[in-house]
Amino acid sequence: MLGLKLATDPRWVNIVESNIEEILTDHAWCEQKAASNAISLVTYNSELEELVTEMLIIAKEELDHLQLVHNLIKSKGLTLGRERKDHYVNELFKFMKKDGSRKDALCDRLLFSAMIEARSCERFKVLSENIKDPELATFYRDLMISEAGHYTTFLGFARKYADNIDVDKRWKEWIEFETSIITNYGKQETIHG
Prior knowledge:
Blueprint: H1 12-17, H2 20-44, H3 49-75, H4 87-95, H5 102-130, H6 134-161, H7 167-182
Helix pairs in contact: 2-3, 3-6, 4-7, 5-6, 5-7
């Protein structure tokens, strides 16, 4: 369903399990950034009522996820560390087209968002199926379902608001680009790292 060409090696979970505090901290900040992204989409596209309505729902869900991750960190006696840079997301951001009309820029921002949600969904699936901690396995399975919904929402809006863009063609370009960079990741105890 996600269309990703390169699956995460399940051995990545071994790296994650070596430092649960780090993966949870990174995950918390990913949720914060996802909420901020949804709010930015509202800010720059306030005239698009349906988009605004859905982005506000997603922003709230992402903040709820942040709270869930934070509660999990506290329940495990861990500490939420400082915000981390997400090099994977930064590389995707550079691929985003910044020229063209406002609608073209919106379309690519939505595809950028869909790509992040797709990879997060895939990583959560790998975690849910391979992590030894049953509480974390359930936690990540539940979040995987939510991320899949966000992915389809972003992709659907890209199709809805595209003016002069062949969204399916551009989505294939996103998938090809993501495939070319994801080989550099999966070596750290971070969601995308």
